[in-house]
Design a protein that fits this description.
The complex is a heterodimer of chains A (421) and B (180). By secondary structure, chain A is α+β, with helices and mostly antiparallel strands. Chain A has 11 helices and 17 strands. In chain A, helix 8 packs across helix 9. The chains are: A alpha+beta (421), B mainly alpha (180).
Amino acid sequence: MKAEKLFKAIGYIDEPQLKEAYITMHKKRIPLVRITAAVATLAIVISGVLAVKAVDGNVEMIEYSAKEIGELYEVHNTLFMPLGLTNEYTVEKFPSGECFEHFDGKTDKYLPVYKGRKTGTSNQNKLKKYVESYEKAIYRLTGINTKVGYIHSIDGNYFSTDIIIDPSLCGITVTAHTGRYFNSIYFRNQGKGYLNDMPKFPNEYKTDEEITEILKEDIRYLNELFEKDYKDVYIERIYGDGYIQSVVITLYNKADELIDKYEAIPPDYSHPSIMIEYRQENVNDSNFRDELDCTYIRLSEPVVKDGGYTVEGLSETISLDKAEEYLEKGYVFAQPVCPICSKYNIALDFSDYSYVQLEYESLYYDDNKITVIPCYVFYKYISKTSLGYEKYARTCVPAIELEGYEEYFENKLKTHNDSKH
Amino acid sequence: MEDSRIIELYFERNEDAIKESDSKYGRLCNSIAYNILSSKEDAEECVNDTWLRSWNSIPPQKPVYLRSFFIRIVRNLAIDRYRKNSKSIVCEQIDELHHITSDNSFDDCTDVEELGKKLTLFLAGISGRDRNIFIARYYYVYSTEDIAKAYCVSANHIRSILSRTRQKLKKYLESEGYTL
């Protein structure tokens, strides 16, 4: 056999081995750092509380079957999982000890199931007008006059527009979005990890206080640029494969109470804010880890009662004991492959899981339609990373009564045995 | 940009797909091609050909692991180029594999994908550390010095581990009926 052929065949080794080797190769170099609370998790906690408010009125009972939920997962996974989110039975998570509120097992008798869709705006001019309202700020940031470019639409609703700036002139691209709850404008500063002409490296080695101090001038600058007065700062570090990929600094006002203006609160709720994200897109390439690849600035503004989620109905909550029973049998959702043998998955025993939370799982069943169901999400401690963070696996059982739950999984088992994969 | 979005761009036939692929994986692919070919120009050409081949493959293909998808293409292109110019190019990694193979054997019928599966099985049977070092060296084409640095050991130590793994691999492949 020729060595070249053997070398070529090494290119066909299975992905989990390749991934593990890559992670191991890179994690050895990273010193211990501290993790802080995650905004996303906070948002989930907020949404859990507020969901109850949303169902005070006349809301009907609704009952799903396990088959229906299974199909939702399958469609969702077909849409998203093969595209790189995860196709693993469990996912790695780097939660913050400061933020995670361990679930005490108590829930309301009924829990809401939400439905929603991307609503955008039916009026192109409205979107243009929104963008144009920031023309001055864009000019001040880039020094270049802009014009609205191509407007993207789905089913007659307008979602986003590119704003044409020659990147060779300022290195910044700008996009505006209109979403369920917020209009947003994004600035992407490719190839530069800084704003306002000053290099800034708020990396993982610095504390929140240090980062806030370093960015003091930028914070003032952005507030002035967008004519806002956001006083509070929230810092999030985002990890992938165990390494820091970006540092997100969110400027907002804690005191803003906008919740009551909405009919229902989505799991991804966040305050109107200015977000600065310093991102290392090539974080896995050790040769370039010290570089910051780009900066994103996002300005979010509320769009009151313009679309969003609605409560589809209330479903009877199942007890944690019942959910644990399903967990023990391996009757869990959230994976795109055979739930019985976990083919392609990390086989993991959840019988001694570390903790459980009540969370809302968002399942897209179309490009722009979504169902949000409450779930018991089980976390199991796996190991400590070389960074010193605790790594958890995650899997879930819907927290609501589903008709034909066991039967659904038994059929899956039968299919599994028949296919003998 | 997320891999999923890059794939969407390919499906939309949006040329930004290539720009974003290059932005995210260009340097990694370039480093692999360069380590095989030891030529900046050849490596750049391989990477450009990688985007072209990806553009022609997606769709219909929809890679599950985009990084591995690109790496496989760039490795194959670099190996093909290496074959054509093997008299003038020295690739340490391929050279090391010569120690357990012979250029004289008839191996045209060897299916590389099938062989890749056998390699997966072989690697699953050795220690995690040895496996990761083997893959770092022969898949990601890192230098022994880089691997040594990552593992906080000497380069000689890494070379010794690789040598032992190669010998184990030779025995394994022979036991599987391959002529080396």
